[in-house]
Amino acid sequence: MSPISQPCLQAMPGRLSRSAVTALVLGGSLCIAPFAVAQDTARQPEAEAQQIPEIEPQDTLETAQDQPSRQIDFEARTLSYDNENDVVTASGDVVLRSDDRSVRADQVTWDRRSGVIMANGNVRFVDEAGNQLYTESVELTDEFEAGAMDDLLVALRAGGRLAARSGERGEDGTVILADAAYSACAVVGADGCPKNPSWRITADRVTYDPENDRISFNGAVLELFGARILPLPGLAVRTDGAAVSGFLVPDLRVSESNGVEVSGEYYWRIDDNKDLTLGTYLYTEANPMVSAEWRHLTSRGAYQITGYATHSRRISDFTGVPTSEADARGYLFANGRFQFTPEWSFTGSVRLASDRTFLRRYDISRDDRLRSTFDLERIDDNSYFSLAGWATQTLRLGAPQGEVPVALPAIDYRLRLDDPVLGGKIQLQANSLSLVRKDGQDTQRAFVGAQWDLKRLTGMGQVVTLTSLVRGDLYHSDGNSLTSTAIYRGNPGWETRGVALGAIDVEWPFVGEAFGGTQVLKPRLQLVATPPIKNLAIPNEDARAIDLEDSNLFALNRFPGYDRVEDGVRLTYGLDWELLRPGWRVKTTVGQSYRFDRDPVILPDGTGLSERVSDVVGRTEVRFRDQVKLTHRFRLDKDNLAIRRNEFDATLGNERTYAEIGYLRLNRDIDTLEDLQDREELRAAVRVAFADYWSVFGSGVFNLTDRNEDPTFGSDGFEPIRTRLGIAYQDDCLEFGLTWRRDYVTAGDAERGDTFQLFFALRNLGFR
């Protein structure tokens, strides 16, 4: 045990309603000066205690200067001095504080002769990291640290709890605990009654190193619901919640494609800002696979690199049938972000797979395309600059990779002028894009433009926004005939185009009481005028997926990109209504537009915008606390009110028991454009909690598209894509369960069939 130097107590006048405050300085001889207490709460010293003698202030200062000392503030109900035994005693709600450490106890004594400081009765010691130690009696060292103690409980700030029969502090500052147990579970229930933890780690000896925030176990064994199930040699955890090196909990899975799968990973914490995870996957129906994940936090940003590798038969990109002997297969995923200055930053990602079914077969991802990107940005108060590029790898069987474009570079610059012009704000923009295909059309684009916006609030409460825009475009394309859809090709060679637009937008909100709450009614009118624009001469690369919906009803250009611009004169009108009451929020939007021109437009039939009068679109949202969330979006045919778009998303319940339903039907009758085919699908998920910590859950994705809606589909109108069922246990520190998933679609060597997975996780044990 570390020696404890004799204390020097200097009592100073203070003011607290129920206690006397003094300053305690460790080091030097005992020096006691006059102190004061509030008379309404102070109690007389015990009969055997002697009157505390007065010491001249300069004697105290001279003693305090003899050697370095730690100052400790404390408060207590009573303070007494036993002259015969040379003991100072503070009693009744004693609180000691020094820097970020504190001790609370029923009584604290300083023995001058032995140099021992003891805290007794309901002791709680809090260190500078926020960890709390509970015991009945503890000896404090001269550095204001806990010394020897019995029957202690340590509540770590990161959430773990450590209990032991006895403990003592070594000369190096570590705390040695005997017959100890560790758990991240609560030991007291919601009713305040003690409860047994779901899991705990028992050990013969535990070493707590506060300097390195580390707890090491000797003879550790994992107990689950009281049963000893697994020895854990070399186990260590950190008190600050950070991870430590070690093996992670293995996964067990059974799938149709790979048979029985057992995977295990080793986590290596190289430093506080970098780590490496190495994984091995063993299968009964496939060759083994390895993985690695590297993560690094630098002074400029962070990045991570993840890779998978195995050796098995590849498949054809078009048929999905194995076509060769065993070959290397794998997947690489890397991303990161770096902030060089407050203005300049860089974001990038790389996603590459060796073939089109690797990710699906090994259940890594179900994406049908992988996108690699980079973006160098500069942002300040009035300007934005971006130099970006991207490449996409398709994972869809039968889709030619050569027809997928590579964008390099994509440049965008915007500047907002400080000085208003005619009372409005001006923003300048310059943009350039180059798209290159191996087996398709190449397109290069550049434009410069300016937009002026003026917003005013009238005396009657209308919000009026005036907008004008001018833009000059320059295009070059070749290989146009390789684009199968004629209206997307444009003319080969060089093309120029001018764009001008003017708009006025008026909103008039009305607020009042209704249905026990507050309602807001907001009519809105927008008039947009654009001269005729040379659209079909320009290639269409970024404005293909056009569809009238509530999100673009009042957009200046309802095409999603720059390559197509609506021309002519149109009037858009709509109505927003919102009701707010305690716990409730209901919001709905409905609108339509009217085109004054009779000339043919470039908007395809079926989008809801091809005729002079558009279809009717709307959106309704209903919220009730966190228990009901409902969103409905629709588009109605203007002639017969037939439903052309019907989208429904709803969540009912709480965090433990809930149901989610999602439904989408696009009934646009567009057969000529692959980007706008009809679709119908249903998504559903449900979880039901029972018996406190148990729950059952299930989900499914179903394709409801039939041959009439999309001739390329062979479905009869009901085709399950994927379903899942499972049972799980989850409390405050333990989670485990069993999941069954069935895939109904075969994609190459990713076969349809059943997959079973057992998952297991312990909180605050360095395991995932």
Automatic annotation (TrEMBL):
Keywords: Cell outer membrane, Membrane, Signal. GO terms for biological process: Gram-negative-bacterium-type cell outer membrane assembly; lipopolysaccharide transport. Residues 328-694 form the LptD C-terminal domain. Residues 44-68 are annotated as: Disordered. It is found in: Cell outer membrane. Involved in the assembly of lipopolysaccharide (LPS) at the surface of the outer membrane. HAMAP family: LPS_assembly_LptD (MF_01411). Belongs to the LptD family. This is LPS-assembly protein LptD. It comes from Altererythrobacter xiamenensis.
